[in-house]
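Handoff note, outgoing to incoming analyst
You'll be picking up this chain. Sequence as last confirmed:
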Amino acid sequence: MYTQERTAVSNLVVGGPVAVNSYDNAIVAALVENRPVMLVHAFNGGYLRPAELKADSHDKGVKLATALDPATKEAQGHLWHVTPAGFFGQRPLYLIESAAGQVTPQPAPAGQADAGRGDDGVPKPQRRRITVHQEAPKATADIVQVGLPDKVGDKWRGKNGAPEDTQLWIVTVTPWGGITFVPITHPDAILGFKDHAVTADSEVRLTYNWGGDFTGTVINTFYPRLPNEWNVPYHHVFT
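Most recent structure output, in case you need it:
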């Protein structure tokens, strides 16, 4: 197997019909502990990263990179938070937030409410989220953007009035330890790549889930990887 870090988690159901019982600590950490992980594609070992790493960029998309360069690593452009964000019926929803360019807000003045705090009392950082175009996955508007809810373009805002609508995802665990992202605004689509091509610098976009299931194909299956697994040879570990 590919990691020596294991957590004994039995029958943890996360957002879909498949239970997480493979003792994969990366999936558990991503979905439960909210630890940042790499999202590595099952087909070629490339990882998702924002096209623009700066915190003030809100109109750029996501791409698949095949080399972890020092600038990306230093900016944490290879790391993502899969953040819990409520429920859709009985299925948990998540935000896919980039660790690159996150900003820790200043504490609110005395007597004023702040934007929320974590368990440690520290203000929650502002993170850019993967946002889906309202008209995706039509050919003319099937891209995604990485930005804060109030900074992305109008067509990337909530289709039903809430800014978060186009940023909420159902995360489905595949039988072989991968994860698939399904936007709630487009339940027949999955997070895929332009022209279905999984190549270096492929543009991430929504693509129709022609197979009709969430068990994952080479188009849409990702493996969460913990930071201590950066040097794992991805092509040789999925046994």
